[in-house]
Amino acid sequence: MEDKYCAFLRGINVNGINIKMDALKEAFIKMGFRDAKTILATGNVIFTIAEGINGGQDSKSFIEEELSKYFSYEAHVIIRSSRDIQDIVIAAQTMDVAEECHNYLLLCDDKEMVLDLKELFDSMPQTPQEQLRVLECGVFWTVPKGSTLSSDFGSKVLGNKKYKSKLTSRNINTIQKIHKLMLD
């Protein structure tokens, strides 16, 4: 059975980097990936690995190089398999998140950075109900709605150039949509 993957692009459709999802899908098809489909306008692409192309993390550099050329910007992607996404969804279901909060997944490939994020979070004051839970592939960050960029942690991490090539965030609702589409 072929495994599906999702590429999470960082920093598109913000700060003047505008990429249409149809063009993004076309770029993945031209790279040789099959069954490419985009989800939302935040740069999420589900695809199947074509024969002769290595899967998962082996595809990261190739995709970043090709997207950088295709769209004339410095592309950064994080790739997760359908199994990884399923594990994330299951982990999210075990969390108690108040209705007035957002639950974000901060995706990261660097295990040291995951620990650094936890250390940073623990060193700062948090808004009421704000929490961080470490996963192997990133962290869940729960924050009250309306406080995403005004929380100390959010203002230090989201959009910080230090994390540009290594970290991207998605609302857990987006991850759940991706998971559902990967099952189809």
TrEMBL record:
Q: Which Gene3D superfamilies match?
A: bacterial protein sp0830 like, SP0830-like domains
From which domain of life does this come? Bacteria
Q: What is this protein called?
A: DUF1697 domain-containing protein
